[in-house]
Write a structure and sequence with these properties.
304 residues, alpha/beta, TIM Barrel, 8 strands, globular
Length: 304
């Protein structure tokens, strides 16, 4: 499947049973809700997917299950977050063999690689696969920044053609566009900066709260791209308290709890994560409950 990095691409959660097995039934409920809402791709195995707790066999199951559910309606993308270049190459090659249509690629995990090491890491993975690659640039959480000069060296590989922009610096969208034009597609990776990023020229949104509110997320994107900015802002302002649940160390628990409220997920997480408790749980539920009570009516955003 040929595609571009654009539109709303959910970083989907991995659903677990109370016995800590993959809950493929609830997983399908969520994926089907995403497709109905009009998302443009499905990203598996990200932070929200609790990738660090998944076995290779479980990742394979998720890829194959998603491909079966999606049936070529949208691309299926696998996130790769490995500690070694060898491991990342193997993961990329396996993803391609299993039928994934793209890769979201993080810098090396645990080791704080220098610029040259990071460039070599990304380039070696790019050489090992024909799949399009979205570089995940998140120096806030992962302590490695991929600078524009670094991208300049990496773009000799045609399949490095997108960036998940999570630097938290909104002006970086303009810098990337000025430097590379359309050669490097830009997907915002921070829920609370998504509309601003799209208005500055980002091509799309790797979203988190979409896992609970897919229609509202896609509506904001479609309205913004159709020039209906006022309508997009109205939904975005309602959404903001919920979107802030994404920029938190317990974003997985927060978003899974929100998906319980909308009926498209469970709050089961894999240890060492545990469901929210006490005052923290109460606070998050108040945000979710208020969002549910004031949930806006949406325009016919799929037919703009």
């Amino acid at each position: 499947m040929s595609f571009e990095w654009k539109g709303v691409m959910p970083a989907v959660t991995t659903q677990f049973t109370s016995e800590d097995k993959l809950d493929l039934e609830m997983f399908q409920v969520n994926i089907e809700a995403q497709l109905k809402a009009g998302v443009d791709g499905i990203i598996l195995g990200g932070t929200l997917g609790e990738a660090s707790t998944l076995s290779d066999a479980e990742k394979s199951t998720l890829v194959n299950t998603t491909l079966d559910i999606v049936k070529d309606q949208v691309p299926v993308i696998l996130n790769i977050a490995e500690q070694t270049t060898k491991g990342a190459i193997l993961a990329a090659q396996n993803a391609e063999k299993e039928g994934a249509q793209g890769i979201m690629l993080l810098p090396p995990m645990r080791y704080n690689a220098g610029d040259h090491e990071t460039i070599c890491y990304f380039k070696e993975v790019a050489k090992s696969t024909s799949l399009p690659i979205l570089i995940y640039n998140n120096p806030v959480d992962y302590k490695i920044e991929v600078t524009l000069d670094m991208f300049e060296q990496m773009l000799v590989h045609d399949n490095i053609n997108g960036v998940k922009e999570s630097t938290r610096d909104i002006t970086n969208v303009t810098r990337i566009r000025n430097r590379f034009g359309d050669r490097l597609k830009i997907l915002c990776g921070v829920d609370t900066l998504a509309l601003e990023s799209m208005l500055m020229g980002a091509d799309g949104w790797v979203a988190g709260l979409v896992d609970a509110f897919p229609a509202e997320t896609v509506a904001i994107y479609r309205l913004a791209k159709a020039g209906k900015v006022k309508e997009a802002i109205e939904i975005y302002r309602w959404f903001m308290p919920l979107l802030e649940l994404d920029i938190h160390p317990k974003l997985v628990q927060n978003i899974k709890l929100a998906a319980v409220a909308t009926g498209i997920g469970s709050e089961n997480v894999r240890a060492p994560r545990l469901p929210l408790q006490g005052e923290e749980r109460k606070r998050v539920l108040e945000v979710i409950d208020n969002g549910m009570k004031t949930r806006p009516s949406l325009p016919d955003y799929l037919n703009l």
